[in-house]
Amino acid sequence: MSDQAEPGFVRVRLDLSYDGKDFSGWAKQTSRRTVQGEIEDALRTVTRSSVTYDLTVAGRTDAGVHARGQVAHVDLPEAVWAEHEEKLLRRLAGRLPLDVRIWRAAPAPAGFNARFSALWRRYAYRVGDRPGGVDPLTRGHVLWHDRPLDLDAMNEAAALMVGEHDFAAYCKKREGATTIRTLQKLRWVRDPATGVLTATVQADAFCHNMVRALIGAALFVGDGRRPAAWPAEVLAAKVRDPGVHVVRPHGLTLEEVAYPADALLAARAAEARNVRTLPGAGCC
Amino acid sequence: MSDQAEPGFVRVRLDLSYDGKDFSGWAKQTSRRTVQGEIEDALRTVTRSSVTYDLTVAGRTDAGVHARGQVAHVDLPEAVWAEHEEKLLRRLAGRLPLDVRIWRAAPAPAGFNARFSALWRRYAYRVGDRPGGVDPLTRGHVLWHDRPLDLDAMNEAAALMVGEHDFAAYCKKREGATTIRTLQKLRWVRDPATGVLTATVQADAFCHNMVRALIGAALFVGDGRRPAAWPAEVLAAKVRDPGVHVVRPHGLTLEEVAYPADALLAARAAEARNVRTLPGAGCC
Question: How many Å lie between the alpha carbon of B61 and the closest alpha carbon of chain A?
Fold first, then answer.
């Protein structure tokens, strides 16, 4: 997983979205429908290649998790890229299923690695608390919570979580991997028209289940079952707390991945590899 | 279909939403899954009744058409209403499938008829024209148009259609039914964040296929295949024009039904029955 394409290859950045409902997550798995698998198959077909060009992704999402601003890169032979560059998007649009869309395919700047060059990832988690349920048209990406939620209490709790911490209490354990993360943003807003609450969760990187555990803790504060200080107390204990409920995946959407200026991409990738052993496994 | 509940009955107004994707439309049909059928079954079950209480609806939507602001009424025996009033919403929420939600169930004012008392219906039709397709998370209620659309041209054409006209050119013919309608609003906006174009279409009532034919004509103007004056020329001809493409149903959502002040409900119902023979069949 280098930060330069091999000689004779072009590193292509892909910006894409998917509805995670009918996928077993991003990462390729035998006999499972995955986002990575669908895109690699489509690329192979539209470029009439016999080989599969592996994708590297910014955020490996779990089964049921969506993405609107996912980023990946793929290294294509120069000849393949030259032949297909112009029509690649339109052909992929025709070949890919409607629950995956690729918006942009363009040569990446030197030093670009979709995963290691990323500065941060921004997720949204959406929740409806209307007694009747969730708008049928958005039920695929909005969780229903059957108790009214107090926005201020949730934001009070959220403010105590931001910053660099050991998020062990909110992460699925993985041998040898650090759970130190910098949570840059955790903030709730309520849409005045629909009443839907959206959490914005942004960090340099996330460990597995981290976002959905943070949301689970927040909902217990929002519906009054726990005080606003509780999530931070759990955080301080640094051990997985069975009282923290990991919410369902369908409310979670990867909205954006940010990268530094081109000149800083390679340095960022090196930094991300060294400072912390980023998790090899899933992310949310 | 009177404007008063029979003695011993309470007329209950229901405000509801549904995702039309997996329904054969609103109106009950044997061996077909319909919105009316699902709700009447749920009502029968939660009230433990042996009889079915028939629903009267404001806008009978076709297969695949959604609703966010649909209104219906049902006449329930006073004893049934008294027993179930308090828990009806929560029980219906538990019994109904997630693609139908009832937000409110409350006694209707005297003279209320969900269909005939309505002043107007407001629909939205949503279209995406990004080359890559439509956001996978909203593809269920947004149509993809594979050519870029000119908002100004579409609004120029739309302005020529507003007012009271014979919309025969845009309606599925139905013997004995008038196609005179008052199109109160036809206006396009583009969401700056998503790029999705939304048409707001509001009229006292619609004849069958009218909205989707109006949208089909507008899209031909938007992508440059037809001039802005064309839809109005078709309108003036008063005969169904094969050049008018009826767009697919999934972009269409009934957003709101408006009613007059309580004191005017009965008069409005009488007016709606007399002035025009409102269509017995489908609406959009």
Answer: 15
Residues of B in contact with A253 (CB under 8 A): 137
Q: Catalytic pick from A3, A19, A54, A62?
A: A62
**In this structure, is residue B223 part of a structural domain?**
yes
User: Where are any strands of DSSP class E within A137-270?
Assistant: 143-144, 163-166, 180-190, 197-203, 252-258
In chain B, alpha helices (H): 35-46, 78-84, 88-95, 151-159, 210-222, 230-237, 265-275
Low-confidence ranges of chain A (pLDDT < 50): 277-282
A35 and A85 inside one domain: yes
Q: What are phi and psi of A241, to 5 degrees?
A: -105, 120
Say if residue A124 is in the same domain as residue A159: yes
**Chain B residues with at least one Cβ partner in A under 8 Å:** 17-19, 66, 68, 89-90, 93, 98-104, 130-137, 139-141, 253
Round to whole Å and give the CA distance between B5 and B8. Answer: 8
Does B62 participate in catalysis according to the annotation? yes
Judge whether A23 lies within some domain.
yes
Read off the pTM.
0.92
Tokens of B28: 């009950």
B174 confidence band (pLDDT: 50, 70, 90): confident
ipTM confidence: 0.91
- Pair A89, A167 in one domain: no
Residue B129 sits in which domain range?
Answer: 120-256
Residue among B25, B29, B53 at smallest CA distance from B40? B53
